[in-house]
Amino acid sequence: MTIEPVVYVDNESLNTQLDLFNEDNLVDKKQLAGLNILIAEDNVFNQHVILNFFKLSDVDITIANNGLEVLEALSNAEYDLVLMDINMPVMDGITACQVIKSQVRYKHLPIIALTSSVTEENRDRCFAAGMVDFLEKPINRTKLINSICRHLSFTKQLKASLENTETHLTSTTGLDISYLKMLVGEDQSIIKSHLDFFLETAAINLTETIAAIHSGLTLAASKSSHKMQPSALSIGATNFADLCAEIEDAGLLGDMNKLTQLVPALEKEWHVVTACIKAWPQNELLYATPDQ
After folding, report:
1. How does residue 197 score in pLDDT terms, banded at 50, 70 and 90?
2. 157 band by pLDDT with thresholds 50, 70 and 90
3. What dihedral angle (degrees, nearest 10) is formed by the CA atoms of 175, 179, 184, 189?
4. Among the four 12, 71, 167, 260, which has the fewest Cβ within 10 Å?
5. Whole-angstrom Cα distance, residue 265 to residue 22?
6. What pLDDT, on a 0 to 100 scale, did the predictor assign at position 139?
7. If you compute the radius of gyration of the chain from its CA atoms, what whole number of angstroms results?
8. 64 phi, psi to nearest 5 deg
9. What is the CATH number of domain 169-288?
10. Rounded to whole angstroms, how far apart are CA atoms 61 and 192?
11. CATH class of 11-163
């Protein structure tokens, strides 16, 4: 589904951009060679620049013009990584990422945000949705290559670690801070920003979810619960995320009995996650497995 856009741009401006990308060396090309990358970008100028850059690196590229095209592309092929513009028509990049990360099969698919709107709020929203990095446009060649290589390497290591351990993220109650550290690194200010943003947004969504259930609004409960699930996964609150997924499914099915039964467990787990977040970084033991 690769789209070769018809581009009408100023040649001098385009050549300036391409010169920045064409400086890449043989090591860079070898690192990227053979990758299958999905790029979500609605600006035809940016599409042209990125396509030409990756053609030099022997990378297979698919272009999507909006979030819905991203979802369609993922349903038709497998990709090593997604580069996601966050501001697109039809469906924006953050919404698309939330939909993608709500599906278990895409849990370890790296999604890197691309944006010209570099604010702390946008950065927090991207990470809360499940993205692994946040790159400013116009794209810096070195930062882009380093980010791709770093996160593809991380994904391979994470998959290997999960395959070789009996207790993994899906069995965690509370908060597994080690997972968030694998995603964003050891910087405490960045970790704190992620945790605080999760508390702020999830508290609103949780209130909406419970209110919808008490009012018998099953679809509304499903939608509000869906908003919490990917961000809960991104901070390692996987038991809470699993409960959100159960509520989402029950809401779609209109199963009021199941929804009512899940509320106490959701509230209990929320209190555990909240206590864990507020205890950090003074207390690094932020999670417990079911047998502890």
Report:
1. confident
2. very low
3. 30
4. 12
5. 54
6. 77
7. 20
8. -120, 140
9. 1.20.120
10. 35
11. alpha beta
Structure tokens at 94: 């953050």
Residue 175's pLDDT is 80
- What's the CA gap between 113 and 144, in Å, rounded? 11
Query: Taking a C-beta distance cutoff of 8 angstroms, is the pair 210, 263 a contact?
Result: yes
What are the phi and psi torsion angles at 288 (to 5°)? -145, 140
User: Residue 11: its pLDDT value, please?
Assistant: 39
- The answer to which of 16-25, 130-139, 194-203 has the lowest mean pLDDT is 16-25
Q: Are 93 and 137 in contact (CB under 8 A)?
A: no
The position carrying tokens 């999905």 is 38
Residues above pLDDT 70, as percent of the chain: 76
The span from the CA of 247 to the CA of 225, in Å, is: 7
Pair of tokens at residue 19 = 């010169």
Report d(CA 126, CA 119) in Å as an integer.
11
pLDDT tens per residue, range 106-141 = 877 899 998 887 788 888 888 888 888 888 887 777
Distance CA 35, CA 57 (A): 9
Amino acid at 110: P
Please check whether residue 112 is in contact with residue 81, taking contact to mean a CB–CB distance below 8 angstroms.
Answer: yes
Q: Quick one: CA dihedral 180, 185, 189, 194, positive or negative?
A: negative
225 residue type, one letter? S
Average pLDDT score over residue span 175-183? 71
User: From the CB of residue 223, how many other CB atoms can be counted at a distance below 10 Å?
Assistant: 17
> What does the domain layout of the chain look like in residue ranges?
11-163, 169-288
User: Strand ranges (DSSP E) for 197-279?
Assistant: none
